[in-house]
Prior knowledge:
This protein is an alpha+beta fold and 190 residues long. 16% of the residues lie in helices and 37% in strands. A hairpin with a 2-residue loop joins strand 1 and strand 2 (38-43).
Amino acid sequence: MHQELNQIFQNCLNHLKEAKSSKTNFHFPVIGSINNNEVELRTVVLRDFNEKNNTLVFYTDSRSPKINQIKNNPTVSFLFYDGVLKEQLRIKSKSTIHHNDDISLKHWEKIKPENRRDYASKNSPSSASNDISNYLEKNWIDNTGNYYQNFTVVYNEIVEIDWLVLNKDKNKRARFFIQESGFKGEWLVP
Length: 190
Ligand SMILES: Cc1cc2nc3c(=O)[nH]c(=O)nc-3n(C[C@H](O)[C@H](O)[C@H](O)COP(=O)(O)O)c2cc1C
């Protein structure tokens, strides 16, 4: 890869690595999935970026609609924007769902009991509710182990990064895409 492109690619990876910290502007990407023929977008928390296999990680409830969408079409897109650096990353990935396996257990054990509330709703997330003040299971905090069955980790292996930075004098844009030999890079017209 051309030296400057390679430097930009490494910066993208470093930026993603830092993004599991809530202090960074890349911590809350928007992810897109396909629901039949419609695009569905939502914000998630970026929980991790594994550099060894270029994998972005987020958590969700196994009953949430996005899970079936990802099962039907595992091509998930991520959108990151850092308003300070004026940098956008559009990432395409191939997703794998981890539910009731070693990987989901490893992540579940890291979650504090009070944060397991996100997986303690009586009914599926996104379903209609007649009793919204009681959407959680009763005494959920005493039984947080029960909600492991609702917890899912989604691993998203990067296949393409579209990087754009807005500069006062000149905008810059490049695309990095996976090949058998690793990532290749090319400049794009911004
Ligand atoms: C700041 C923020 C962070 C969020 N983080 C997550 C998350 O990590 N996982 C998740 O499933 N939903 C998260 N949500 C909620 C989703 O945006 C979305 O409303 C919900 O998951 C339902 O999506 P679905 O119906 O497409 O499955 C977050 C929302 C906000 C505003």
